[in-house]
Amino acid sequence: MRDAASTTAGKTTSTPAHPISTTKRKAVASTPRKTSAPTSTQKKPARLAPVKRSLRPSSAQLASAPSASAPPAGHLVILPPADVLTTLRAQRERVTVTMLDPWYNKGIGGERPDYHDWLAEVVAEAARFSDHVFVWGFPEIVAHQIGRIPPTHTLAAWLTWYFKNCPSVIRGWRSAQNACLHLAHRDARLHPEHFLNEAQREKQRQGKLRYLPGPPSVIEAALIIGFVGRREQQGHPSQKPEKALEPLIEMTTVPGDTVLDPMCGSGTTGAVCQRLGRHAILCDMDEKYVQMTERRLGVKRSQG
Ligand SMILES: C[S@@+](CC[C@H](N)C(=O)[O-])C[C@H]1O[C@@H](n2cnc3c(N)ncnc32)[C@H](O)[C@@H]1O
Predict the structure, then answer these.
(1) Atom 27 in ligand 1: which residue has the minimum CA distance?
(2) Residue 28 Cα, ligand 1 centroid: separation in angstroms?
(3) What separation in Å is there between the alpha carbon of 302 and the centre of ligand 1?
(4) How would you classify residue 225: left for phi > 0, otherwise alpha for psi between -120 and 50, otherwise beta?
(5) Which residues are 219's β-sheet partners?
(6) What is the domain partition of the chain in residue ranges?
(7) Which is it for strands 258-261 and 279-282: parallel, antiparallel or unpaired?
(8) Homologous superfamily, domain 5-74+86-261
(9) The whole model's pTM is what?
(10) Residue 74: its pLDDT value, please?
(11) pLDDT at 146
């Protein structure tokens, strides 16, 4: 397993200048940027005494960062409804990230007997053109993928989304976590510099930051349920909070990179990309969720 911070010294991956300008992806909406994230070209030095840090910098911190440059507006593409394998097999150009958040083979979405084989095939297709692949699910479900990681990628991290406010009880234990496997290509770039606090940034500016501390692999974000997350709620039965996806996108992309989410549900990946100035390609097999994503992002689907 590769340590997250240790991979930052890896080679920079090439991202096409306009990574979603394929003929298939031609209907593109330019969206306004609401916050900015810095780009950094500084290389990772060794060691530094641990410094207290927040999960991600505030917009004030980002604005004051010397390396901060205005990211380009994120281009969002919503595809007509399609099965995930159809979407992945049609993808011709490299993307920085593919976010895989399927149903979890119990509860909503039902069970399929071939689930583990199916998911392994989905992951393999995504790995073909993605620097990073995230695979969400219940821990006992994604655990089956650990031994089936495509040879081009390694397990960069087992991430946990921790929430305290789920009412459902499983055998006496109240459900409080989801897992997410972070698979990274050997040349993939990580961006722990996006998580520096102001004191660390200042040290970095002065050339005194001796290593880049990474964010925690446990992400705490309340489940969107009842009155929690009212402003985000779209009516999708399994909608993730933006706060759960944001660190993943910050860690693996810079403004202008492309994130593909072929099972986008309510479009949470798109909402985060829209805010952070990343490009996104979104699809779901279900017409009503494609419509939900269109409404949420204010973008019409491409005509295929
Ligand atoms: C867990 S939800 C995704 C939630 C999403 N991340 C959000 O925050 O709204 C899973 C989604 O995957 C879609 N899905 C499941 N199987 C699919 C398949 N074979 N092809 C395409 N979409 C699929 C479902 O319609 C559902 O919207």
Answers:
(1) 265
(2) 22
(3) 19
(4) beta
(5) 161
(6) 5-74+86-261
(7) parallel
(8) Vaccinia Virus protein VP39 (3.40.50.150)
(9) 0.79
(10) 83
(11) 97
